[in-house]
Design goal:
By secondary structure, the chain is mainly alpha-helical. The protein is built from seven helices and seven strands, in the order αβαββαααββαβαβ.
């Protein structure tokens, strides 16, 4: 009925205001602190070969090993970048037009990665909606489905133990250097 539709529309409008205006300020500090930063780690040639990667076509570390990450960290990085873009006035108050164009391109890449991976390994649990206008500003998702989750802390500790930090010395991939006639050289990081 029309009255039920109106009752439902008003809470969704309240939800929209909460999520776009009020809640971001509440969660900004929590979001920055709770998301693990992107972990780049030192993979071995054998580990790269497991997903059929070619070590010669992979950026390497000056100290040995290959510049790598784990898919979940790439996805978390993407979500964080999208969040920053939603709140760019806070995170990038003095951004240039060129910087914004570059960030939009990066954000498009992030959205694509998160979308592809969500669709590749989807949560297929069935959720129903519960709604009590006296206590819930929006409908609440409910599911009793079971999921198999990893224990995040040991996994994250393992990944951190293989991290090369935020500014490692890198070598361009071997095949690219050979193509350019270069016999080695630092591609980034501290010199």
């Amino acid at each position: 009925s029309a009255s039920q539709s109106r009752r439902f529309t008003i809470p969704l409008c309240i939800y929209s205001v909460l999520m776009t205006v009020i809640m971001p300020y509440f969660y900004i500090v929590h979001w920055r602190m709770s998301l693990p930063y992107t972990i780049h780690f030192q993979a071995t040639a054998e580990e790269l070969k497991l997903p059929n990667a070619d070590p010669d076509a992979t950026v390497s570390y000056v100290k040995g090993g290959y510049f790598s990450t784990i898919g979940v960290y790439h996805e978390l990085h993407g979500l964080r970048r999208l969040y920053w873009l939603l709140h760019e006035d806070y995170y990038f108050p003095n951004r240039s037009a060129e910087s914004r164009r570059n960030e939009m391109e990066h954000a498009t890449h992030c959205r694509t990665i998160v979308l592809k991976n969500t669709m590749c390994t989807p949560n297929t649990a069935i959720y129903s909606f519960s709604y009590n206008p006296d206590t819930d500003p929006i409908p609440v998702l409910v599911s009793g489905a079971k999921r198999q989750c990893i224990k995040w802390e040991p996994f994250h500790e393992w990944a951190e133990s293989r991290s090369m930090g935020l500014d490692p010395d890198l070598l361009a991939q071997k095949d690219l250097m050979e193509q350019m006639g270069i016999k080695g050289g630092v591609a980034g990081g501290r010199r």
